[in-house]
Amino acid sequence: MKQHPDGDPSNSVPHSGIKELLFRLPAVLGEMVKGKAAELADSTELREDRISLGWNEVSARTVSAEIEDLVRRGTAARPMEPLNDTDCALVEEIATATDRAGISNITRTAAYLACFQAYPELHWAFLAHMVSRNAGWNMTDLRGSRIADTLDEEGKRLTYRFLERGNALIFQDAYPQLLLYMKSRELGSSHFHLLPYFHVSQFMRPFWERFWIDRGSALLTVGLIINEQHYIEKRVIRHPYYQKYVTDKFSYHLHNLTGISQIVFPLLDDLPVEEAKQKTEPEDDGVAEAGIGAGRRAVTRLAGRGVSDFGSLPARIALGKSLYAMLMGLRAVRSGAQNFAAAVPHSGSRADYWPELFTAKREEALTTPCQGSELLEAETLPAGKRLYSPKLLDAWGDTPYEPITREDWLKDSSALDGISAPKAPYLCDISREHRLAILKTALMHDAMADN
Questions:
Q1: Distance separating alpha carbons of residues 112 and 93, to the nearest angstrom
Q2: Is 7 exposed, middle or buried (0-12, 13-18, 19+ CB in 10 A)?
Q3: pLDDT tens digits, one per residue of 289-339
Q4: pTM for this prediction
Q5: Which of 6, 208, 209, 297 is the 20 to 30 A CA-CA neighbour of 33?
Q6: Which domain holds residue 99?
């Protein structure tokens, strides 16, 4: 119960945070109903122009058969081929580059984009870039105004370590594979016999060797999605420490219920920046913050999907394939996301893509605890009343992670179940759903701050 500043109980405000939350519930439900119809129309528009991913069923069967043969013969570690001087130098060069680029979520995200820009057939690298941006945004949420006050400091630290470990481990496994392909292209010959020297699962070699032959981007991407989700399953998702201190905690599930677990792809239109400036309000501190001028306001929609069952390995693989088909198989999503990635450097702040709601500057953020009320009243928030979303390095800095186990995850043929053609989801515009998730976390913040 709120008390009047003079301390007189007779002047207390007759509501608590929970009552306020219930009072706001009809408005939230109204937002949901209005949003669904618009979401359907917007998704239909995004799906109109599709691009073939080039799925090759014959190649998929060939790779599956090779992996089945590997499993039949036993997946115990086999002696690695001896290296000549050239191979030794190549392994050392890639290992050094991986360490250098793996310092933080910021450097990893940039490294993925550089791979894709150099070799656009590496579809997975662009998917990884966009998903890694989301990982950074989720990390900074723990220090942002919506969530920071709903977790104690230890809870924030442990959740950050959980998110950071997953992001770092996937990079540690996948980036050497990308570099090995790029170096093979430079040298004009396949060097995938070196994959074991980077502790890459035997599962991946057939995918890379097939990719070297036919450049089948879709099959390789599906292989990498399956591989990376298996790679983090025991090392992160099912790790007893993180299960005990993060994923089994009530606060973790509470935040998931609000819809914060969403993967969003900001879409930037094709207008040149100078032309876009003419279509933008003359004064916008959030735009200037993003660092690319007023044309930044061209981000008008978000594609993406909600994460409903992060603890399920098959569900994560299905989600990855769905996101891939959306990102690279729908022309509007592909071009919009590529425009955004090229124009907006990743900082970890949600102001990167939504400066009308977020700011990375604490002194310009909303100070009142009634965040939900502000969001219910207007689609955007004015300067000085935006939600605080810090840059990642301001929130956490660089965080080294502990050594990890290196054993091959491939034990049986169950992973082959995921080798199938990716399909884009029917609902792919997540703009309104994402704003609703922001609203729900803000209302949750208000309720907890008021009690």
A1: 17
A2: exposed
A3: 443 333 444 687 999 998 877 789 999 999 999 999 999 999 999 999 999
A4: 0.86
A5: 297
A6: 16-258+310-338+366-385+396-449
